[in-house]
Automatic annotation (TrEMBL):
Keywords: Membrane, Transmembrane, Transmembrane helix
UniProt-recorded name of the protein: Early nodulin-93
Organism: Hibiscus syriacus
Chain ranges passing through the membrane: 31-55, 67-87
Keyword Transmembrane part of the UniProt annotation: yes
InterPro entries to which the protein is assigned, alphabetical: Enod93
Any matching Pfam family: ENOD93
Length: 111
C-alpha cells in the first residue's frame, strides 16, 4: 500500500514537472516568435522600401545594384531566425530558473 502511495506521489510530481516544462517551452516559443517578427519588420521592410520607393535609389542605382540590395533580404530573415532562437532560449531558461526557485525548499528553515 505504501509503495502505491509513493508511486502515485512520484507520478503526480512528474506530471507537474511535465506541465511546467510545457508551459516554459510555450512561453519561449511566443517570445521568440515576437522577436522574429520585430526583427523582420525592423530590417526587411526598410531594405525593400529603400530600393523601391526612394527616388534617389531609383535614379542612381542600376538594376543590378537594386537586385543586390534586395538579395540581402534572406540574410535579414536569417537574422530574424537567429533572434527567434536566442530569445526563445533565454525565455525558457529564465522561466525554468524562476520556477526552480519558487518550488525549492526554503534554506533558512534548515539552519
Amino acid at each position: 500500500m505504501a509503495k502505491n502511495v509513493a508511486q502515485s506521489a512520484t507520478l503526480a510530481s512528474l506530471d507537474q514537472q511535465l506541465a511546467m516544462a510545457k508551459r516554459c517551452s510555450h512561453e519561449g516559443v511566443l517570445a521568440g516568435a515576437k522577436a522574429a517578427v520585430v526583427a523582420t519588420i525592423a530590417t526587411a521592410i526598410p531594405t525593400l522600401a529603400s530600393v523601391r520607393m526612394l527616388p534617389w535609389a531609383r535614379a542612381n542605382l542600376n538594376h543590378t545594384a537594386q537586385a543586390l540590395i534586395i538579395s540581402t533580404v534572406p540574410i535579414v530573415i536569417a537574422a530574424a531566425g537567429a533572434a527567434y532562437f536566442i530569445v526563445a532560449d533565454k525565455t525558457v531558461l529564465a522561466t525554468a530558473r524562476k520556477n526552480s526557485f519558487k518550488h525549492a525548499p526554503n534554506m533558512e528553515t534548515r539552519i
